[in-house]
Prior knowledge:
Layout: E1 2-5, H1 16-20, H2 30-33, E2 34-37, E3 42-45, E4 50-53, H3 56-70, H4 74-101, H5 110-124, E5 128-132, E6 140-146, H6 149-154, H7 163-177, E7 182-187, E8 196-201, H8 203-214, H9 219-227
Antiparallel strand pairs: 1-4, 2-3, 3-4, 5-6, 6-8, 7-8
Organism: Planktothrix agardhii CCAP 1459/11A
Domain 4-vinyl reductase 4VR: 140-202
Protein name: 4-vinyl reductase 4VR domain-containing protein
Amino acid sequence: MASSTAPQHPVEHQSKLKISNPKAHNHYRFQDFFSFDPSMGTVTDWNQMRNIFTSEDFIIGLVEGLEEEVGSASSVIMYTIGKEWGVKDAIFFQQWYEAEYGQSIRQSNLMFLLETWWWPFTAQGWGRWEVDMSDRKHGCIFINLFDSAVARTLGDVGKPVCHIYAGLFAGFFSNLVKKSLSCIELQCYSMGETYCKFLLGNPDRIDAAGFWLNEGATARDIQRKLQDGAVLR
């Protein structure tokens, strides 16, 4: 898995595809997306962001270390980290998207825009996703995540663990629509499910979903409640 940070130096070592066809859009093969500079010991991606490759041991150490230090509040910390990351990445995404495609994100097809945003995450090992817009009229979006780096690493621990993803989605979409949104993981690979499922929407809807989830509702139950217009009293 790779994570990214802002570049500190101009990128001198670039992939062969980047050199021969810098306008290429299909650049997500490992050897195309990443550029390695042995002399500096750095890895940069196609968009000139610094990347750091981490192991599963790092993820385990991060999660277990936080839990040991702050207990159940570790999930809030991971969510907050993810949300801040999402906000900053949304700003950077707008820059490279408009430079690569020559048009504003406001003029782009929404699904194309979202897939373009997520492809670098897939290349970095964060997993594949599927965005379900069918419930937008009910004020929410469902996101299915396959092969979560966190859940895959921790295994079946009987509880949701992908809080950093929930924060990432909340931060990115909040910046995209210029409105405060929240996100919650409704089902997780680490709970024995085949994939992770997130609900994105207004904070009051997410609070309601969290309450129903704690009461034992499934992701499908919560989706039905939202479609029926159920609210907390």
